[in-house]
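go over whats below:
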Amino acid sequence: MRTVEAAFRMLARLRAAPALHPHGLMCTAELAVVADEGEPWGVKWLDAPGRYAATVRLSRAAGLPHRLPDGLGLAVRAEHAAGPGRPLDLLLTSSGRGRITRRLPRARADALGGPYSSLLSYRVGGRSCVLAAFPRRSGRAPVHGDPGSLRAALAAGPRVFDLCAGTADGAWRVFAELTVRGPLPLGQVESADFDVYRHDAEGFTPGRTLAAARRAAYQGSRTGRRERGGKG
């Protein structure tokens, strides 16, 4: 894992930004737990009504020109969802929605053109499932994933995503509604050091697949960015 950490550290130092998804837009948001008629999740924060102040970062993985397809990222931090003073982080990537394609990254030019997925499984109340965010489409014009296009889209009104967990039969079950309201003021730190391993919740944790490699990548990216003094 030292090789992985060193590679991400070097890339973050060169960019003075996260090794992947170097440029993004930090936004204010709210996450509201959705009650349905399904059986209890077996997760404290999902089985009780709740609204959580949130921060969202929308980004492009490679930082390609905004009209070109790129891997798009949706990072979410819900304050106090894991308990008082304990945030919950989610890191989702543009993907497909089928049984197989929900586990595969998919490059897109339109930030609202399809779902974002955890790609790897989570343990949710003892169940193994993939998480996803489905944007509610409003309007026909594509919204490119670069900060300028996202700012313009949010100026027209909030953007809503349905947060879902994949069920055993391949369907999606909604567990929360994420409302992205608007960009944070310029000059604020752009990266909140999202980390799904440091900021998980009881009964709601990322699986072990590639966990060591992902932890090393997060640490390398954080270290390299701080050495360079980057904020992105």
Notes: The first strand starts at residue 23 and ends at 33.
